[in-house]
Amino acid sequence: MARVFVYGTLKKGQPNYKYMINTAKGLAKFQGRGRTVEKYPLVIAGKYNIPYMLNIPGTGHHVAGEIYSVDDQMLQFLDEFEGCPDMYQRTLMRIEVVEWEGKGGTGETWAAAEGVMECFVYSTTTYPPEWVGLPYHDSYDSSGKHGLSYVLRESR
């Protein structure tokens, strides 16, 4: 099992969460909530209002999200879903655990690291330069006060 940190439309209550609980795509087990140890710019961009974490460490906010344990099948699905490696790149990032629900072996592994663990995160280095000038968010909600509702793939 791999650990994945999701910060956008794949979180609980967001438009693409349905894929995280679709066992036909593989297994994804919610482990807890966290935030990036480094600051990153989280922007909402493009005509479909997609959330992107720009891979510019030290700029922006500590981005909040959810930690999942996923099997190889789900990881492969997420790579395809996220357009990896063209649109997003899957990289290891240090995530500070804010709230932990994980059971069994994985719980002990993060405790030893004082609440910080490495997770795969889909961020991007392939973005138009003007995105750096967009507003930075510390948390994503498709129906947030930013007024930029995510456009589902089936509606594009």
From TrEMBL:
Molecular function GO labels: gamma-glutamylaminecyclotransferase activity; transferase activity
Gene3D superfamilies linked to this entry: Gamma-glutamyl cyclotransferase-like
Entry keyword set: Lyase, Transferase
Active site: 82 (proton acceptor)
Lyase in keyword set: yes
InterPro entries (alphabetical): AIG2-like_dom (IPR009288), GGACT (IPR039126), GGCT-like (IPR013024), GGCT-like_sf (IPR036568)
UniProt cross-references to SUPFAM superfamilies, sorted A to Z: Gamma-glutamyl cyclotransferase-like
Gene Ontology terms describing biological process: modified amino acid catabolic process
GO-annotated cellular components: cytosol
Enzyme class: lyase
Matching CDD domains: GGCT_like (cd06661)
Entry EC number(s): 4.3.2.8
Domain Gamma-glutamylcyclotransferase AIG2-like: 4-106
Alphabetical list of PANTHER family matching this protein: GAMMA-GLUTAMYLAMINECYCLOTRANSFERASE (PTHR12510:SF4), TROPONIN C-AKIN-1 PROTEIN (PTHR12510)
Function in brief: Catalyzes the formation of 5-oxo-L-proline from L-gamma-glutamyl-L-epsilon-lysine.
Family statement: Belongs to the gamma-glutamylcyclotransferase family.
Name of the protein described by the UniProt record: Gamma-glutamylaminecyclotransferase
Organism this protein belongs to: Bucorvus abyssinicus
